[in-house]
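Q: What structure does this chain adopt?
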Amino acid sequence: MTSHQPSPERSFPLSAGIFFGLGLGGFFDGIVLHQILQWHHIATSAGYPADTVENLKLNTLLDGLFHTVTYVFVVTGLIILWRAAHRRHLWWSGRLLLGSLLMGFGLFNLVEGLINHQILGLHHVNETVPQDGWVYWDIGFLIWGAVMLIGGWAIYRSGKWVTD
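A:
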């Protein structure tokens, strides 16, 4: 392991990793929480519970639009990474990639959790438990996001000084 910091022209494309992380965070939320576990959909707490065919159709459409945004995040990350990869001496590092992915994933959880769960009340993390327990799942989601964001930042920082 060498211990030095890369020059600015060799810097790792942080924004690419963050966009990938945002997309992966959104895909995890949409695929695991919306589809596999079916804990919630986009608007299940906004007056459209998934208890009728009409409400399920609306929520499925909104879930699809949500997945479209997460897909755009991943494509954006790929474009940024591709453009950066054409630089002659790009600083490649697994720590920088992992750290930036975790920062993006954590950022997704924090922003989505604060806006959709807390501010707008569109849905909550686990709507299969009694309603008075929803807040605990929402808080856990925010803590999980904060831990990923902070942990990702720490890993990213450590990768700026070391090649691996």
